[in-house]
Specification:
The chain has a 5-stranded mixed beta sheet with strand order 1-5-4-3-2. The protein folds into 2 domains: 91 residues, no CATH class; 87 residues, no CATH class. It has 7 helices and 5 strands. The protein has 185 residues and is an alpha+beta fold.
């Protein structure tokens, strides 16, 4: 079940990248989608809707969002699939590389850094990530490097990264390359 869902999740990850480029809040859109798919399942009884809900949940959680924020909805989806929360969470982080919060490993997550156009220098970014992870500073933090033109010819960051820290868990998302990492202290 989860392996099949991973294939769906990959497609959703690509769509989520486009949402971010348009400035839409991905977590909000994913929750709305999960709710809509679950409602369709309730009306039709078709398990394909609830399997899609699970794939959306996977992407939502990979981004560092918290299961507990939407526990009622998520528990319903999991129960409809005769799963346990633990099965989802264990599988969720199996494929996600684990990085230690040190300079060389944090640097390895980040692509080529433009020396002139950025939110911070690469050294400041690395130090900021390590400091936030080691001190458990809950929140969502963004880092930018380079510039490019979007489909509307607007100048946007070429590389965008998001660090999410919540309840001692740190997730790093390379939004352009669509790669996820777990960072350990």
């Amino acid at each position: 079940m989860i392996k099949h869902t991973n294939e769906y999740a990959e497609t959703i990850r690509l769509a989520v990248m486009n949402l971010e480029k348009e400035g839409l809040e991905t977590g909000e859109v994913l929750i709305d989608s999960i709710g809509w798919l679950y409602e369709k399942y309730l009306v039709s009884g078709d398990k394909r809707y609830v399997r899609q809900s699970l794939a959306h949940m996977q992407v939502y959680l990979e981004q560092g969002n918290d299961y507990e924020d939407n526990r009622r909805l998520f528990d319903r989806v999991i129960n409809a699939l005769d799963m346990k929360k633990e099965d989802l969470l264990i599988r969720l982080y199996d494929d996600c590389p684990v990085i230690k919060a040190n300079k060389s490993q944090v640097r390895s997550m980040i692509g080529r850094w433009n020396p002139h156009i950025h939110s911070m220098s690469i050294h400041e970014v690395i130090d900021d990530i390590i400091e936030k992870v080691n001190n458990g500073k809950d929140g969502m933090y963004y880092y930018y490097s380079g510039k490019m033109l979007d489909s509307n010819k607007n100048v946007v960051p070429k590389d965008k990264y998001r660090l999410t820290i919540r309840d001692g868990r740190s997730q790093f998302w390379d939004m352009r390359r669509n790669r996820y990492f777990t960072i350990k202290r």
